[in-house]
Amino acid sequence: MFVIELTYKADLSEIDAHMTAHVAFLRKYYDAGTFIVSGRKIPRDGGIIVAVGESKAAIEQIIAEDPFHRHGLATFRIIEFRASQRAKDIPKRVA
Q1: Confidence label for 71 from pLDDT (cuts 50, 70 and 90)
Q2: Most buried of 15, 60, 86, 91 (most Cβ within 10 A)?
Q3: What is the pLDDT of residue 95?
Q4: Helix, strand, or coil (residue 22)
Q5: What is the pLDDT averaged over residues 54-81?
C-alpha cells in the first residue's frame, strides 16, 4: 500500500484551474481499483491519496499522469507501507 502526499507549489487559483482534470485522473484510478481514499489536507496546502499497487515504480508512473504533476503544480511524496491491521468497519469510518 502507498500513501501519496501532494504539496501544492502554486496558488490555489492555479490548482482550481486544473481541478476538473485532476478529479478525472482520480476517477480513472478509483475505477481501476488502485486508489482507495483521497482528499484535501487541512489546511488546504495539498492532498492525500491512499493507493494499492504492484510497486513504488508503478505508483510513480501513475502519478506522472496527474495534471498537478504534469503542470508542476505540486510535489509528490510516496510512502510505501505494509498494512498489517485494519478496522472491520472501514466504510462506516470513512466519510
Answers
A1: very high
A2: 15
A3: 67
A4: helix
A5: 97
Average pLDDT value over all residues in the chain: 95
Give CA angle at 66 (65, 67), nearest 5°. 110
Q: Please tell me whether the peptide bond between 67 and the residue prior to it is cis, using omega within 30 degrees of 0.
A: no
The conformational region for residue 18 under phi > 0 = left, psi -120 to 50 = alpha, else beta, is alpha
Helix then strand then coil, % of the chain, to nearest 5: 35, 25, 35
Q: Could you give the residue ranges of the DSSP H alpha helices within the chain?
A: 12-17, 19-31, 56-63, 67-70, 90-93
Q: Is 53 helix (H, G, I), strand (E, B) or coil?
A: coil
Judge contact between 84 and 12, C-beta under 8 A. no
